[in-house]
């Protein structure tokens, strides 16, 4: 297979893997022949690169670090969890653990050796941010954890914390959600309180590891003490990562 930027695609090329949109829905499957019109459709999804079949490069392995299907499933599960909580439903341990299953699968794909690279080719739309961004962060945090020497049973602690870090957003109004910008310091007090709100939501669940709780609560901590909500400072461990925006 060959990885190509969308600008390099030509009609007649063949997809090398399944494609999913930002909501985790299957767009089209491996083996589909591209048309000029379809290439334009792919650009509208915000994609940058895709894998295509190339008979001259069969000996060159090209693949994503995590299965796109697993990432898509995780995004869908996270969306359903948010929907249930916003609807006032009481979330059971079983419902929460269901969201964890894809995280365990992603952690398993990092062993015994790292093969492939994370797929970060997404231009996130505002309405998809809450359900796609945490999935990507979870993958990166577990990759860094693997590089740092953490084992297969430790990595899901990081991944679950990253996945659920913004659960406190369910208490925000629609206008406040539209104000969220991962690249800027939030001005709203309610937005700044989301780590603490997430921690409160997860505190009484037996399936949540204590280190996951700590990571969730302090994922906006800064070395210089300018983070929030507790303005803690100093050296940070992997379970209390410096930048989890």
UniProtKB/TrEMBL annotation:
MF (Gene Ontology): hydrolase activity
TM segment ranges: 150-170
Top-level taxon of origin: Bacteria
Keyword set, alphabetical order: Hydrolase, Membrane, Transmembrane, Transmembrane helix
Pfam families: HD_5 (PF13487)
Protein name: Metal dependent phosphohydrolase
């Amino acid at each position: 297979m060959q990885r190509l930027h969308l600008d390099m695609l030509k009609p007649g090329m063949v997809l090398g893997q399944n494609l999913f949109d930002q909501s985790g829905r299957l767009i089209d499957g491996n083996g589909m022949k591209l048309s000029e019109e379809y290439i334009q459709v792919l650009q509208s999804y915000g994609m940058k690169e895709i894998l295509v079949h190339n008979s001259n490069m069969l000996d060159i392995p090209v693949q994503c670090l995590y299965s796109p299907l697993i990432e898509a499933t995780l995004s869908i599960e996270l969306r359903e969890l948010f929907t249930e909580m916003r609807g006032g439903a009481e979330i059971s341990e079983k419902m929460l653990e269901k969201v964890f299953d894809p995280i365990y699968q992603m952690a398993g794909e990092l062993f015994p050796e790292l093969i492939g690279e994370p797929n970060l080719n997404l231009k996130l739309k505002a309405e998809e941010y809450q359900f796609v961004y945490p999935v990507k962060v979870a993958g990166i945090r577990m990759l860094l954890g693997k590089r740092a020497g953490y084992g297969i049973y430790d990595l899901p602690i990081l991944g679950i914390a990253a996945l659920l870090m913004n659960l406190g957003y369910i208490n925000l109004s629609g206008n406040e959600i539209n104000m969220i910008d991962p690249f800027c310091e939030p001005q709203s007090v309610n937005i700044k309180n989301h780590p603490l709100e997430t921690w409160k939501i997860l505190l009484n669940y037996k399936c949540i590891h204590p280190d996951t709780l700590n990571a969730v609560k302090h994922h906006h901590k800064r070395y210089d003490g300018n983070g929030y909500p507790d303005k803690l400072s100093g050296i940070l461990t992997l379970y209390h990562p410096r930048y989890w925006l």
